[in-house]
User: Fold these one by one.
Assistant:
Number 1:
Amino acid sequence: MEWTFQTAEELTSALRAGDVTSVELTDEAITRIERDDKAINAICAPDFDRARAAARDADQARARGEGRPLLGIPVTVKESYNLAGLPTTWGIPQQRDFLPAEDAVQVSRLKAAGAVVLGKTNVPLGLQDIQTFNEIYGTTNNPWDHDRTPGGSSGGSAAALASGFGALSIGSDLAGSLRTPAHFCGIYAHKPTVGLVATRGMVVPPEPALPVDLDLAVAGPMARSARDLTLLLDVMAGPDPLTQGIAYDVTLPPARHERLSDFRVLVLEDHPLLPTGSAVRAGVNRVADALSDGGARVERHSSLLPDLTEAAILYMQFLFSGSVARFPVEEYEQLRVRAAELSADDRSLAAAQLRAMVFSHRDWIEITTRRELHRHDWRQFFAEFDAVVCPITPTPAFPHDHNPNVLERRIDIDGVEHPYFDQLVWAGLATKPGLPATAIPTGPSPEGLPVGVQLIGPMFEDRTPLRLAELLEQKIGGFQAPR
């Protein structure tokens, strides 16, 4: 039997039943990577010798009666996580030889849960793109269409899962970096509530792995089924043992509902700042129809929803002000000159991004206060609704675009070009307030490309969108292997 595309849950059952060993699963995954990854280029740093040793250890542990959550399951890890013995580069050429001394906290948790780490997956330069390519490891291709991107920055992990290179992966998300690759590659991913999952050891090299509380970015699980997301999130969740973990543990509340008919859902397909392409619109409506057919209360409008335009601008301000924090002084001064030349009437997203790059601390405090007001609005919203269904990006996976001047790049939405980074407005809807969001596949576009949507839930109620994802997987189907 071929185990390649089985879920982690299915593989665990087979391991327990003695139908397969971890060594066999690991060898099969390695064989597939060696055969198929030349065309995909998802695995940038293989670790096959240690993986085989870990698989042998897992089989011995199971024979002793151990039953850890991921015991013997082959997985991959995004390149941005420190893994002792393998380079951490973030795609930065100057860091190609950087070797961390210890594992990131999430790699340690994977290993403690019994997972077999096959290697690390490719990322864009500095994790700062919606594609996955860099000078060190080259370009990762979408398994559905090699001329298209798998997304970024967790594009290598998404491509690996869609190709059958392991059952699970861990990635990260600041600008949709879990959700967009899931959407482009037809898999599942979960952006946890900000602060729920410790991120120590996921740090740009050669900086030290300190237990820093990140403002927007999160670490999160990726899988080929919704239930596997929950399985992996339970391994990942919890505070850093060096800081908050000294004082408390995490116990997530249960999902608000178990039946689809009990969910109250707001469905959004339009954004005031950017059109939604027809393929993604169709995916949103497939989910809306499934919800209605299942008896859920589905609404298309709510006065409780925070203003989408202000939310997008706030998100861009947070994102772009943080992105230039370490720019050289000369480049920062050039940005100040450009920002000063903007017309006071220019309220475009591009203008908001440029102004944010030269924010003062006073500006930062002001937008932080506005974000707290939005979080208050979200709490009121989630008193009446359980989830929001909306796009992740306005299109399916787009063709590779390596233009070094990102300001010249464009995204084609049904034949009309739009600024490249404008497509981040949907990702920011959950990121800016720190809400959990689960990406699920909805079926292919007319061109045969995967289309996904995100299910946004209440803060720290991550099990609610995850449970809704499970129910929708049963209703509309889930992962399909690339043809």
Note: Residues 361-381 form the longest helix (21 residues).
Number 2:
Amino acid sequence: MSKLLADAYLASGKIGNVGTPGAPIATFSLVVVPSQNSVSGTVVITQAIDGPDSHIVVDVKGKIYATGFGPFTKVVSLHGEYIQSFPPPAIGAFPAEFDAHFAIDNEWNGIGGFSYWRHHIENVPVQAIRNLKEELA
């Protein structure tokens, strides 16, 4: 049992067109356990617009696998649920799903996509973050 988490590590990054005005960006912080092919953590979706989609926090779980070939050495899938508020003037909220997938190199840079209520973003960069605390401040 002590070997179960022996190779676990933290991975942080962003999925999306960083620097593009109004583009949704998914910032992730994940605990990766390669021996179990598992990842879990938090995704924060931000978008420079007012409304219920401007800041969403999602607890996620997923899988990570080695590809064994090419420049992308790992593939990752994430899934989670969060509470989505209806846009004004409506009142209320409902559980909504978040999904993400990406192909990355050993430095956690690559390409991927994500989807959440009424949004589907594909073929965008995945970039590793060295200091997540500064990025989210």
Note: The longest strand covers residues 55-66.
Number 3:
Amino acid sequence: MTYVDGFVLAVPADKKEVYRMHAAEAAPLFMEFGAIRMVECWGDDVPDGKLTDFRGAVKAQDGEVVVFSWIEYPSKEVRDAANQKIMADPRMQAMGEQMPFDGKRMIFGGFAPILDV
């Protein structure tokens, strides 16, 4: 089975197209280093929870939309190697300086799939 990096972040609603372009620019780098799929999802039906929710997880502010995304790799080993290359790549470093969201509020993690139908 594949390995998945998952992300949740808050993006100003008026920066939707800027974010989409940023993600589209980053996608070829992830693919170059081994990703097999990258998906970006703009929040459309993200309800407030009673105890916790997506908005609270990223401390979304008024006027921000929650983005849920993931990157799939063929294996954890490929993902680990890709992350090292991506973080050292000057193209990614330049893009990191121009992120259209507050990266400090992004949550992320690596996940081993247990069901894929």
Note: The longest strand covers residues 3-12.
